[in-house]
Write a sequence for this structure.
């Protein structure tokens, strides 16, 4: 009776489904096993394999007629005993690794159903190795053997399966495709079966390619072509013996085995003499041609598979050359251009090419010729006592394993001559078309689940070390430790007499130089000019006297004076997270910086920030680092007594913005909250009084302190979206910073008080509480829902609700601005609608890129920024 | 679908507990099912299932289909529920109350 191909395919399909289903159910059941259960199974399987090493080696040899039984026994031992020794204590179930410093653990997850292709060259050892590896990782495995080795492969699989099941493994955890003429077709069907999770392909290039083409995740191997460089420092007898051990191992069937030797001329004669002594045969050129004629298949220019794993005597006979009985290796001198020599390819048999070289460079280059003749990513070897040569060789060669002073075949297997992971499957990386260069093993048969716990970074509080805070504290300058002082200030400070007040207080023996050319918003040219003057003067102390611009400029000047090699462009590179930023600032500054603010706004005297105008790009550059902090701050309100009303109000609103933004910042802490709250309380109290009595030192003092407290708050908690908007408007329309801040304040308060459209992703900011904090601020300011009345006094809402308190805060800010004459919209700044509309895209782009918004409690989307800009243009009504 | 639901509703439902290790078929379940009742299998005390156990579960689901009765699984611990998930057997998923067809590969 005959059956059609279609019928045969149907039958095949059923067989495939049945095999895969068994494996799938076993994989599901295997997920329940503990480490102890798994280890018990693996132990039982290994013992069963060890008991069968000889039988299986004989079976493999009888079936494939390749290699040597004795070496196959050794390979079976490596795949069982050595493999077990390496993996027995490895964790493969549950948490397998802890990373305490990263607050993370790794948990193993089996891959599932593995389709394993096994080769003709190592049928039993590969099956032993893969079965044990699969069990250790709680995977199930279906073997698809090479047709020429199916009986021995499947016999091996059965022995390991039965041992595993006896020890408690799930039924069906190992299975195999029975030998049949349709084995290949069956394998093809399994390769694309939806229930197969991984293909683990060890074998010929075609088989590995098919696995990769299946669309499944695949672990494959690449072809080898191992160059071995025997350098002048190698010991000829030892190197020759290792090569003989390696190249004759299983008659050369191991793919990491030596294919071409590159021999330094200094030791060539001695080495070849050793080979001869060890019964290797060195061909003449005529014989090389004869060997090549039988070893290389002219149709493919690759090795002749009929001679794979055959003895040297058999190959010599086939080539028609006479060699002594029991010749170990046929050595062929490869003359001419190595890259074109027929024998420069992989030959899995005891035929070995060699070339003689005159230098290390030539040696490495010839090794590269072999390495890149079909063996990239696989294996290379070197015999040398010179570590620098070994390193040069290893750096140049593209191989997953570069075996030093030992046989490459057994060395590549791992565990015998070195501590490489034991394997029968050699990953070749991208050079060999693989995903890994590993000695593939259990590590590659697991899915790794990383479980990182939230990492909260350490919050710190830093500020200027010495702060002198009462009116008249300028007198501290009299005891300042300095021999050479450089005063940085503005012309207005000189006019207002501040400069004289400073210089007359400096110690008599102190050399003083003044630079008073710092304008309203100094740019890089101004900074450079001042630094040049400083280099001439060589001060040990810099005194910054002025408003925020002067203080910021002085911080930058001091830094570049101490470290001229720094680059502004690099220091001002933006960052998403302070801890991960790419820029490194100096750890220490040497020149003392004394900051004496003459306005009550920026708080720059206590912040690690410095903002500088970038006129070319109409933007402000921000520098942030602890090294920018002044050493001394003198908060002497006497210097603010003559401050004009407009500047008093602008700067007070700057300080108020600092307080309000730092309060709700994602970096806010109990430390900064206290400072922010007290700062805003002082401003609400002192600004109206200062405006009524500008010369009253008590209120000026309160305002000056408020600015400093808010500076400490932003110095640690930073600011928010209001500053991003203000920086943008300030840079493009040259609006003073405090005033620019003021026009956005009502909008950003309302914006931040609402549940964000997008939360700001910051690890340390675990709960969004901006609304609660604004309400708390209102309460702290003594506002009550009663303040949430309209101007006629009728209640707008009842009860002390959060919303009512927030509205009370908004109204308080509005009323403060109105009473102080602070503009609350962009139109009031004299910006025409036309100019605003025209600049809007750039305003939005600049604000969106400003780092200030990174600590805002909500992540401002570009749409949000656009809306905040537009809303800030028109006149405002009382909230 | 509605008709089938009606068929189930007219039959009594028996709640049966699964053993600690489900390694083979449970006779009492087979008997109740043969008697034409719906069955609810309570996995509260069950913390391990073997391949034979899985195959038996699949088999009784097939049987209940032909008997026009309903078998449902309740109180599975996550380890056991994961076994059913990894097994990719559609009928097991349905018995746990999952929608009709699994989205991933199915045996």
């Amino acid at each position: 009776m005959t059956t059609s191909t279609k019928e045969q395919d149907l039958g095949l399909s059923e067989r495939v489904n049945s095999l895969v289903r068994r494996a799938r159910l076993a994989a599901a059941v295997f997920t329940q096993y503990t480490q102890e259960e798994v280890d018990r199974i693996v132990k039982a399987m290994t013992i069963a394999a060890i008991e069968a090493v000889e039988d299986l080696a004989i079976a493999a040899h009888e079936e494939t007629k390749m290699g040597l039984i004795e070496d196959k026994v050794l390979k079976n031992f490596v795949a069982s005993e050595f493999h077990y020794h390496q993996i027995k204590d490895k964790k493969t179930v549950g948490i397998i690794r802890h990373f305490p410093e990263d607050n993370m653990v790794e948990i193993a997850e089996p891959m599932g159903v593995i389709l394993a292709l096994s080769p003709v060259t190592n049928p039993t050892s590969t099956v032993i190795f893969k079965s044990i590896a699969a069990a250790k990782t709680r995977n199930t495995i279906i073997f698809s053997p090479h047709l020429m080795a199916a009986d021995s492969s499947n016999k091996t699989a059965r022995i390991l399966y039965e041992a595993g099941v006896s020890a408690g493994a799930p039924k069906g955890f190992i299975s195999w495709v029975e030998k049949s003429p349709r084995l290949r077709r069956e394998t093809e069907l399994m390769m694309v079966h939806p229930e197969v999770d991984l293909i683990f392909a060890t074998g010929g290039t075609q088989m590995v390619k098919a696995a990769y083409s299946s669309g499944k995740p695949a672990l494959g191997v690449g072809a080898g072509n191992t160059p071995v460089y025997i350098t002048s420092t190698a010991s000829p007898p030892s190197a020759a013996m290792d090569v003989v051990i390696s190249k004759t191992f299983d008659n050369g069937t191991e793919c990491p085995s030596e294919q071409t030797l590159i021999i330094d001329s200094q030791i060539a004669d001695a080495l070849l003499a050793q080979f001869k002594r060890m019964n290797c045969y060195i061909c003449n050129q005529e014989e090389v041609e004869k060997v090549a004629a039988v070893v290389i298949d002219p149709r493919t220019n690759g090795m002749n598979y009929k001679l794979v794993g055959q003895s040297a005597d058999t190959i010599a006979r086939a080539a028609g050359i006479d060699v002594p009985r029991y010749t170990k290796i046929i050595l062929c001198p490869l003359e001419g251009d190595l890259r074109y020599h027929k024998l420069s390819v992989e030959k899995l048999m005891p035929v070995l090419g060699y070339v003689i070289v005159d230098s290390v460079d030539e040696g490495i280059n010839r090794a590269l010729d072999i390495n890149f003749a079909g063996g990239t990513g696989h294996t290379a070897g070197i015999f040398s006592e010179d570590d620098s040569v070994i390193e040069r060789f290893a750096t140049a060669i593209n191989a997953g394993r570069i075996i030093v002073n030992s046989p490459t075949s057994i060395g590549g297997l791992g565990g015998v001559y070195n501590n490489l992971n034991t394997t029968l499957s050699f990953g070749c990386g991208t050079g060999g078309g693989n995903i890994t260069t590993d000695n593939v093993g259990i590590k590659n048969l697991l899915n790794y689940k990383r479980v990182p716990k939230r990492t909260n970074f350490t919050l710190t509080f830093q500020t200027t070390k010495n702060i002198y805070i009462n009116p008249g504290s300028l007198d501290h300058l009299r005891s300042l430790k300095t021999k050479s002082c450089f005063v940085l200030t503005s012309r207005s400070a000189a006019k207002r007499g501040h400069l004289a007040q400073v210089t007359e207080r400096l110690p008599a023996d102190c050399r003083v130089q003044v630079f008073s050319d710092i304008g309203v918003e100094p740019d890089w040219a101004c900074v450079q000019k001042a630094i040049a003057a400083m280099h001439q003067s060589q001060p040990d102390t810099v005194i910054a006297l002025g408003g925020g611009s002067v203080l910021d400029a002085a911080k930058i000047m001091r830094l570049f004076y101490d470290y001229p090699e720094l680059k502004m462009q690099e220091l001002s590179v933006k960052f998403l997270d302070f801890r991960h930023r790419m820029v490194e600032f100096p750890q220490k500054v040497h020149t003392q910086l004394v900051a004496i603010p003459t306005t009550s706004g920026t708080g720059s005297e206590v912040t690690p920030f410095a903002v500088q105008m970038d006129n070319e790009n109409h933007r402000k550059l921000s520098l942030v680092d602890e090294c920018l902090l002044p050493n001394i701050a003198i908060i002497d309100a006497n210097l603010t007594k003559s401050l004009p009303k407009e500047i008093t109000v602008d700067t007070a609103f700057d300080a108020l913005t600092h307080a309000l933004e730092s309060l709700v910042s994602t970096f806010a802490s109990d430390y900064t909250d206290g400072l922010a709250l007290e700062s805003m309380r002082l401003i609400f109290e002192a600004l109206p009084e200062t405006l009524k009595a500008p010369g009253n030192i008590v209120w000026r003092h309160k305002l000056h302190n408020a600015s400093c407290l808010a500076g400490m708050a932003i110095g640690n908690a930073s600011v928010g979206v209001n500053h991003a908007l203000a920086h943008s408007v300030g840079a493009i329309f040259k609006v003073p910073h405090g005033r620019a801040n003021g026009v956005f304040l009502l909008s950003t308060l309302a914006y931040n008080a609402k549940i964000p459209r997008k939360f700001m992703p910051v690890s340390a900011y675990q709960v969004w509480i901006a609304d609660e904090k604004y309400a708390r601020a209102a309460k702290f300011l003594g506002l009550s829902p009663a303040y949430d009345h309209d101007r006629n006094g009728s209640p707008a809402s009842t009860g002390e609700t959060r919303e009512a308190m927030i509205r009370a805060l908004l109204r308080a800010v509005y009323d403060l601005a109105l009473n102080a004459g602070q503009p609350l919209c962009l139109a009031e700044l004299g910006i025409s609608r036309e100019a605003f509309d025209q600049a809007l895209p750039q305003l939005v782009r600049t604000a969106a890129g400003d780092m200030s918004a990174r600590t805002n409690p909500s992540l401002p989307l570009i749409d949000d920024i656009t809306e905040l800009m537009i809303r800030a243009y028109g006149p405002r009504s009382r909230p | 679908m509605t008709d089938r639901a009606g068929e189930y509703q007219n039959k009594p439902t028996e709640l049966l507990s699964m053993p600690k290790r489900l390694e083979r078929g449970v006779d009492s379940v087979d008997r109740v099912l043969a008697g034409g009742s719906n069955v609810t299998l309570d996995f509260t005390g069950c913390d391990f299932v073997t391949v034979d156990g899985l195959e038996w579960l699949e088999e009784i689901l097939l049987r209940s289909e032909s008997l026009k009765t309903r078998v449902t699984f309740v109180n599975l611990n996550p380890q056991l529920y994961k076994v059913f998930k990894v097994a990719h057997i559609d009928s097991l998923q349905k018995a746990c109350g999952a929608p009709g067809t699994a989205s991933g590969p199915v045996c």
In short: Helices of chain B lie at 2-9, 27-34, 51-67, 78-87, 90-95.
